[in-house]
Fold this protein.
Amino acid sequence: MSSKLCLCALSAFAVVAATGCSSPFDRRDSYSKTMPPEIRYPEPSVYREGDDQGSSPQIGDEIANDADEYIRYALFHSPEVESAYQRWRVASERLPQVRSLPDPRLNFGFFLNEVETRVGPQQARVGLQQTFPWIGKLRVREDAAAKGALAAWFQYQEAQLRVAERVMIAMHDLAYLDRATAITRESYELLVSFEEVVRARYRLGSGSHPQLIRIQVELGQLDDRVVQLESMRGSYVAALNAVLNRSSSATVPVIENLPAHLVDDDAEKIADLARGSSPVLASMNQRIEQARFETDVARKDGYPDLTVGIDFIVTDEAAGPTITESGDDPILLSFGMNLPIWREKYDAGVRESIAKRLSISHQRQAASNTLSAQVHQVWFEHTDAARRARLYEDSLIPKAKESLAASMIGFRNGDSEFLDLLDTQRTLLEFAITAERARADSGKALATLNRLVGEPVLTHTHDQTTDFTTGEVQP
């Protein structure tokens, strides 16, 4: 009897193990359902175990103006991007959980008092049961989970876009600061040459002491401005290092100039593009589809699930050796199902999923309207800043330089006042810095525009930098 019971138990365990190990899907198919068809697998993150730190992008002096390398470095190291990636993996791992059958149930029973039958006394019962959900229930559960994972994938893309935007904004701010510092130094050096002229004239008796004092005051103010700009660089570098996930004290090379890009399309065309390619809206689209599948799941939850079972009754040898079928183990095949008769909870589940889908649909419409308004606003900021930059670079700065050159000649010949020379120099300095600020604002707005659209918009380059060189002044 004991050997037969052990054999039945081992057989039941083998069936359970085989059921648990088999799966109609493999792991890669599971992940492939959670990404768009044209997407494969994202690059491995630096935080994953076993990753080679030597493959990480590096930042050196040779790429000081290469924004793409800074963005690549940030995407490789950003904890924000890594967190979004892991959220996608969390959602992807839901698929094999929701598409699997419920665990089979293995039962053992022992007769405390043997039941004597014609073929022998019954000793124990071994049973195995498996529940099969209603037709299509597992499939729609998997489809709902896949849509949720797709939504997480687009959120992962949105995290990448936000990090890229932050990198570009920090780089344009730092480039502006570096250019403003260089321009102010050039202006300081120009004033030093003015002071030498005034000092030489003062020694010869043709200059006045108030002029010398005035230019020394101006030099002191410019020197203070240079010190202030140089001191500010630490905070700007820390902001860039923060998005790069580096130490705040890590060195960032001087960014001499970033290429200026101007959008080709108008605001309405870009808004139409954003409504079709924004990962924010794409994520909400997938959430709407997920809620639609969840409605099917809620309906199918109201259908019965079938349970199939098989029982082996362990029977000992009969007392009479001449009895046929002595010791044969009866086998019982059973069928059962749950009875979903409490319809109120199932109907409420359907209504809940429909309300959820409608809520997300309205959220998406609101997000689309907001996105369109943001695109128009950022497009204006970008184009207006580019217009101001062109105005200063193409018109105001050349005229200010021409005026300064004329003032220098007039001052040297004694035809103009010294204060006119200082005012012209101060105007040129402010024009040059304002042009750099406009260039930075245009680049920052373009970075935000790319993030809103979800992909780089069509642009053309407009590479101009402010040249503050004015030449030397001779006494």
Q: What stands out?
A: The CA atoms of residues 74 and 244 lie 4 Å apart. The first strand starts at residue 105 and ends at 117.
